[in-house]
Amino acid sequence: MTSFGYNVMGFGSSATVGNAYTIQYLIVAGAGGGGGRNGGGGGAGGYLSSVEGESTGGGGTLQASFAPTVSTEYTVTVGAGGAGGTVNGNDGNRGTSGSNSVFGSITSTGGGGGCGETAIQPQGSAGGSGGGSTYHSSVSAGGAGTANQGYAGGLSLQAADGGDYSNYNEAGGGGASQTGFNGDRISGFGKCGDGGDGLASSITGSSVTRAGGGAGGWWAGDSGEIPNAGVGGTGGGASSQTSIDTAGIAGTGNTGGGGSGGTDSGGQNNSYPGGAGGSGVVILKVPTAFYSSTTSGSPTVSTVGDFTILLFNSSGSYTA
């Protein structure tokens, strides 16, 4: 079958020759957890797209569609989000990186964990999008993102006046479309870094934004005054907490959104872990004329134009 039409939004006929066809896809990995104590935000899960007329993560080149072998079973793995960084006395540990999401031979990289507030882990982890950093005696780089998947985490900067309080407004995690924002003292008690924004896709027929970075955490100091909270990146990234004695907030499940950094209102028993990263998702766009109906893992199946859409919120498989 050969098609002669093309739809700008990607819902027209798919180009096929003979028994060969291609599958468009969106693969979002699990996101990183936020760092413990006053930690950096978790990086978003890697965002890989071959959807015609849309974008892949990190400002990269749109991926090539997948050419399956007929009657072959292809595994789908949906990556879990990483755990939030734990607290050990007056130290916060780095958040755990998210797990990869996979379709066949295509792998999207888990988001990097946000840095914990400790001298031995000053940077966020690299990942699909990188985790945000913390300030500990000097400025440390955010975790790097992965080409064609996402952006780096932000930095946590010292105030221009050298004030100690600026050390505790941490950076946001990177997102699919934007670097995480820096944590800094902009006025008063300071501002936590926002998470980088994600990307929108209409692969399911409706526009949904995924893979936003988590916001940075904070130290409230002995006064108990909470800094200006950061905002999670659009696409499931978690915002900073706005109350004392609470752990970071988890990223939204099945969006690859990063968890926010933990909090600290005086150290020791008043330090709290970071929020967990959100799990990923795998979405396949198969020409209905070639759809085999053979799946495992209970994906949600729908039809949009000439295509059958398989949305996997958990692992499974598709047989071409």
Summary of the model, kept short:
The protein is an all-beta fold. It has strands at 24-28, 47-49, 73-77, 87-88, 91-92, 101-103, 106-108, 199-201, 208-210, 218-219, 263-264, 281-287, 295-296, 300-304, 307-312, 316-319. The strands form 5 sheets. Strands 2-1-12-15-14 form a 5-stranded antiparallel beta sheet, with no helix packed on it.
How many H/I helical runs?
A: 0
End-to-end Cα distance, whole Å, is 16 Å
**Strand content bin:** 15-25%
User: What is the multimeric organization of the chains shown?
Assistant: single chain
Helix content: under 10%
- Sequence of strands across the biggest β-sheet: 2-1-12-15-14
- Give me the Rg, rounded: 20 Å
Tell me how many strands there are: 16
Question: Which structural class is indicated by helix and strand composition?
Answer: mainly beta
